[in-house]
Design brief:
- The chain is α+β, with helices and mostly antiparallel strands and 199 residues long.
- The chain has a single domain, classed as 3-Layer(aba) Sandwich (Trna Endonuclease, Chain: A, domain 1).
- Helix content is 27%, strand content 33%.
- The protein has five helices and twelve strands.
- The protein has a six-stranded mixed β-sheet.
- It is globular.
Amino acid sequence: MAIHYPNGKKFNSQPKATINGSKKQESFSNRGMTLEEDINETNEYYLAHGMAVIHKKPTPLQIVKVDYPHRSAAVIKEAYFRQPSTTDYNGVFLGKHLDFEAKETRNKTSFPLKNFHDHQINHMRHVLAHQGICFVLLRFSSADEVFLLDASHLISYYENQKSARKSIPKKEIESLGHPVKTGFHPRIDYLKVVQHIYF
């Protein structure tokens, strides 16, 4: 299926070839799926235990081409993102609006700022301006470490990237952010950290 961004560029979800010519199992866009699945499972746990209502935002698509190989089946062949996405998740926790983005990197020493986009940063600014809780969950996949970083810190780094670094050093994330414990149920217990630092 061909999916296009609002600027008309195609979304490429095909895995990249490795040096020896074989295909990787994961593409850059799919590397975050493990983190996404862990957060979705965590959110289901929170909902089932009456702790919070938090969901992944659906991405609105404009379908432009559909094939019908069978009477009972339809295959979407081409679609466009209707608008740029904001953040991955939002919901309500202890009476407060909660809004966050989740990103993953294989980099061991820093988190690349290219993983974030202007429209996401602007959305975070608006959430903070209205007293909502806004942050990012950053996973360093090589060490399986997750940190919660308040959106205000991310915004500051993002605004300075044109004249300074293109990434946030891991040491600074460890200093400004908060480690999130990973386990079995819930998988990534980020609400414990949210409750500690925002309430």
